[in-house]
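ESCALATION

Customer reports they have been waiting on this structure for their group meeting. Please prioritize. Original submission:
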Amino acid sequence: MMDAAYAYCELLTRKEAGNFYHSFKYLPDEQRKAMCAYYAFCRRADDIADGDYVDVFPGGEGAQDPEAKEYRESLEQLTGDKSVLDAPTYRDKLAQLFFFRKKLSTAYNCHASTDPIFMALKDTVSRFNVPREHLDDLISGMEDDLYTNRYRTFDDLYKYCYRVASTVGLVCIEIYDYDEPQAAEYAESWGIFMQMTNILRDVSEDAGRNRVYLPLEDLERHGIKPSELSGDLANDKRWHAFSSEFIEKIESYHERALKLLPLLNRKARYSPAAMMAFYGSILKKIKKRDGNIFHGQIKLSKVEKVTLAAAIYAKQRFFRL
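Update from on-call: job pushed to the front of the queue and completed.
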């Protein structure tokens, strides 16, 4: 049963993860399977919060479930009942995330789920001693997207990025294995670097969905209105100044993230090094284009990916990365 559960997670990861799966497949078997189980967990949470995935929770009554309603009311006391989604969609998604969090409990208690993702996850968190708080924080980040589509300050954005991305880095290092406590600090920066790169790359797409993740305070300082982000600012000096400043900030987190690599088990270093290289190359492309993310999707070609992967592998294998 456990082999089948891990096989399911690996199949899902291979199908959906793209660059991430490439970085996983050179890990030792136990770590590769664990990363696939964790990716499957993250993917399922994201598909519930930001997609059309509807999970089945035995015994649950959806948005009308008494426990789910009590949970929703407790969150609404904090948020003021101001979801950015229509009421039925919001209630359904929040109920789904509530039951998803209950499923997570089975990975940390004596109960067992029949869901292959949570079967594999239970084995993974036990084998690698993964703290539950990191997985709970990720779900909280998904819930943030139900209530917030704007971030006033950089600190507000940082908190969101920590929940949806730094927590991922913190789980990854438990699976990779490390000795120095500073690894956690650099793993946090790794998540911030990757998420902020995503945010900058996807500005137009997010604006089209009425989501602005860039700090409003910083946009306003450069005279940019959020509504302008759905247009074309490619030749706008205000955008050039803003994006240059934002890229510099992302680069500072990239530099800190790179300090993580020497602190990890040598056999696992290729995986994070490859991910950092892929995202670093995307950021370089954006910088080379003076922040122009408005004319076509910025991504790496297959040749660029293969070249980068080979360079990272050679560094690890022959130059002892």
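Sent to customer with the following note: The mean pLDDT is 92.
Escalation resolved.
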